[in-house]
Amino acid sequence: MPDSSLPLAQTSSPKIAIIGGGLTGLFTATLLERAFSQMNNQQINHQQINVKALIPEITIFEKSRSVGRLATRYRTDSHTNKNWQWAFGAQFFTAKSTSFQQFIEPWIQTGLLQPWCAQVVSLTPIDANNQTADIQAREQWSRVQARYISTPKMTSWGRALADELQYTTITFKTRVVALAEYNQTLANKVSKKTSQKTELFNEDGNSLGSFDWVICTAPNAQAVELMANSGFSELAKITEPQMQACYSLMLGWDDKQPLPESLKYQEMVWDVAYVQDSILDRIFIEQQKPAHDELLPSITIHARNDWSEQHVDADMDTIKAQLLAAAKQALGWNADSTPSQIDCHRWRYAATVKASNTDSNNTDANKEAVGILVDNEQQWIVSGDWCGQGNIESCYQMATQTVARIYAHSLISAG
Ligand SMILES: Cc1cc2nc3c(=O)[nH]c(=O)nc-3n(C[C@H](O)[C@H](O)[C@H](O)COP(=O)(O)OP(=O)(O)OC[C@H]3O[C@@H](n4cnc5c(N)ncnc54)[C@H](O)[C@@H]3O)c2cc1C
Questions:
Q1: Environment class of residue 265 by beta-carbon count within 10 Å: exposed (0-12), middle (13-18) or buried (19+)?
Q2: For labelling, which of 18, 121, 280, 373 has a CA lying 20 to 30 Å from the CA of 218?
Q3: pTM above 0.85, yes or no
């Protein structure tokens, strides 16, 4: 957050466009609103009563109808009226920095965010030598360095963030086209960008308005398309981090059905399994998460990122069959305990890896993050989780960097 002791330099309310309504976009809008409100309070405290309050006009343009890679799918059983539910994007997040811990605190207080003290195991699937999967205790996540989930759904936090915004309009189902198209369409006007405004357009060529700042939070493969040939000064750095795919498999069982062998808890209750020697990476038991106990048995399985990336363009039915075969080996179901609900989703951009790590499945390696990419002259910022470590906490870090840069730039321009 900007230093609240700094003087306020901007004299008119800025218009800010955020491309992408994922967590980076929502955190950025939230922190921008807070920063401007803090500036205005500071003016009042300094009795600068003749200075007009600066209310930012923020617009988030989101091409889909929901909030980014936080995703929940559910299905209702017609007999029991109960739900199966799968968080098939991000499953949980960490809050390692004090600043992010403070940021999430209000939602922890309301119970919307809850720590997930999961029992974590290592699971080696059935193979020619073993008739049952081998399950070994690994760790229990604790409240120290906790993993958090959003309740009742993983999407609930995104919705709450969106609802709490005061000066931000969110326009769903609106794809912003490449900024170069703007340059070409308005070639004669570009040269006189004295007002520093950037006009954005949708796919139909309709104007979405002119903005003092444009912040792009799309995954980097999409960001590079948006900024290509636009004159964005940091273009080459956008493709430095690599993003890998992830297939998510969603499985559900009926209330009265026997559960597969590995889930019967005869020896050990577990919530999360790291799968060994498999194309599967992790298994998450949804109905055992905090505030999820009303659900019918629902399991989300993430495939390994390297395997998913290698098969990113494969036919979905083939992928689903391969994932199901691997899941059967891991969970050990028979004719009676075959899941009744089966679904699969492909994430083209799921995990950020450094170029040198692309051949491994280690996405958490200590790698240097590129940070947000800023073109001060055009007042364009390219941000997103991939500018950091590719997780939800990175979305917050990149949002704080963005807000600090806009604030600093306002001071320099006035100086
Ligand atoms: C399978 C999976 C598992 C994960 N597990 C974890 C985890 O356990 N812990 C964790 O912390 N993180 C996890 N993550 C990562 C986490 O989900 C992301 O870090 C976070 O959601 C990224 O948010 P974002 O806003 O940066 O990007 P996104 O959520 O991708 O948001 C960018 C948005 O931009 C929109 N967009 C793109 N182009 C345009 C355009 N031209 N016009 C308008 N809108 C556009 C997209 O539709 C998208 O909604 C996981 C992700 C996946 C997919």
A1: exposed
A2: 280
A3: yes
